[in-house]
Design a protein that fits this description.
With 437 residues, this protein is an alpha+beta fold. The chain is built from 11 helices and 16 strands. It is an enzyme of class 3 (hydrolase).
Length: 437
């Protein structure tokens, strides 16, 4: 059997990274099992796995098609232990004739592997924790496109681990500071604002044929709210977007917010239908907080498809207020996703999908209920009807102008605004026609 040598210093740093991510000997999780199942479907193989390479063993975090009692193996060279020495995909077309793998126990014994391909799970600082693997009982060749997909799946796993690590670190920092005396309140406010910036995305991207503006109104300087939003590219034609509101505040809300943001972006890569993306998020939240107090949220997730005559929008709703389509003529259509349930509350939650089209001069407004549930100085709730009236008066305005007007409205509530509020506005610029001379 081929034994792959690794520099002792490099290996010591890699093992430290494995410990840092706290994944060894943890129970199976849907988020990782879905990656394994997707890998098996893409490669059309009977077996796939997600493994972490420990000091003297290969430990299986996720697997499909492999023997049921197989949870770990000795760290023998040839398969996973050799794959982590490579910066890119590692392929064995015929394991029985390849000297690297010919006497590996998975080759000589059950399930008698003949084909093996793996992509390393690489951390942000370059450590290879383990691999995403596909296996077959027949020799075969594999193409560059398939290997690219395997690499993408390994990157999704690495991203999930990074998000969890960041969330744990953020929560631990906040909890440590909250144990200090009230005299250190200034330090606590500084930490909270920093954490909020980490959880919120940077400036929105440039989407062809669309103006985008966002705003996050902070109701409390010393508490992290659970509102979140993002806009990102899905593929060469489509863009994804979401806006949501986690139940609760503080450390628990921060954990759910970080997990929800990453899960929605990751699911969008392989689940094209908006309803499937929310179903994936629901499964992840249910699995992550199994046995704990429910950690749920409301979410609107959609897909933008820009075209020559406007932007087509498909969106799914999970218990969130409807998006408002603000037409150029001053009418406002509430884009209802009837029957969409809260995300992360029930294992079999259902979500509904709606579609709309933005023509030149039209816009789409998404918001969290901190806006509509705010109370005026006279004690009256602002409500959806007033918001629709305000949106109608802003018809045809650029996205930033709409958001700026809403910022003024939020500021006017003063102490009547008790919840954080997120706003996402997207508008299609009107067609400017030249006057004939």
């Amino acid at each position: 059997m081929t034994v792959t040598l690794i520099d002792p210093g490099v290996e010591a740093a890699r093992l430290a990274a494995v410990r840092r991510y706290q994944i060894l000997d943890t129970p199976p999780e849907d988020a990782f099992d879905r990656v394994v199942q997707l890998a098996a479907r893409v490669f059309r193989v009977p077996m796939a796995s997600l493994t972490i390479v420990d000091e003297d063993r290969i430990w299986f975090k996720g697997r499909t098609g492999l023997p049921g009692g197989l949870t770990q193996l000795p760290r023998d060279g040839g398969l996973c232990a050799s794959a982590i020495t490579q910066s890119g995909p590692y392929v064995v077309s015929d394991a029985l004739t390849d000297p690297r793998t010919a006497d590996h126990p998975l080759v000589t014994g059950e399930p008698r592997v003949r084909f093996y391909a793996a992509a390393p799970i690489t951390t942000a600082d370059g450590h290879r924790l383990g691999t995403v693997n596909v296996l077959d009982v027949r020799p075969r060749e594999v193409g560059e496109e398939e290997l690219g997909t395997l690499t993408d799946l390994a990157a999704l796993v690495a991203g999930e681990l990074e998000t969890r690590l960041a969330a744990r670190s953020a929560v631990e920092r906040e909890r440590r500071l909250r144990e200090q005396a009230e005299a250190e309140r200034g330090r606590l406010e500084l930490l909270t604002s920093t954490l909020r910036r980490v959880l919120l995305p940077p400036s929105p991207p440039k989407v062809p044929g669309l103006d985008i503006a966002t705003h996050y109104h902070v109701a409390s300087a010393d508490q992290v709210g659970g509102d979140f939003f993002d806009v990102f590219r899905v593929d060469e034609n489509d863009w994804g977007f979401f806006l949501g509101d986690v139940c609760g505040k503080g450390a628990d809300a921060a954990v759910v917010t970080a997990l929800a943001r990453h899960t929605l972006r990751a699911a969008a890569v392989y689940a094209g239908d908006p309803e499937d993306v929310l179903t994936n998020l629901n499964a992840v939240l249910m699995d992550e907080f199994l046995g704990a107090d429910p950690c749920y949220c409301t979410v609107v997730y959609g897909v933008l498809t820009p075209g020559d005559d406007g932007v087509r929008i498909r969106l799914a709703g999970g218990g969130h207020p409807p998006a408002l389509a603000v037409r150029a003529d001053g009418t406002v259509d509430a884009v209802h996703t009837e029957g969409g349930m809260l995300v992360g509350l029930l294992p079999e939650a259902r979500f509904s999908v709606a579609s709309t089209f933005l023509h030149p001069g039209d816009g789409l407004l998404l918001y969290t209920d901190g806006l509509t549930e705010a109370r005026t100085r006279a004690g009256h709730m602002y409500g959806e009807d007033r918001l629709i009236s305000l949106a109608a008066s802003l018809a045809g305005q650029p996205a930033q102008a709409m958001v700026s007007r809403l910022e003024e409205t939020l500021s006017a509530f003063g102490p009547g605004l008790t919840d954080d509020t997120a706003i996402l506005s997207m508008t299609v610029p009107p067609i400017v026609r030249r006057q004939s001379r």
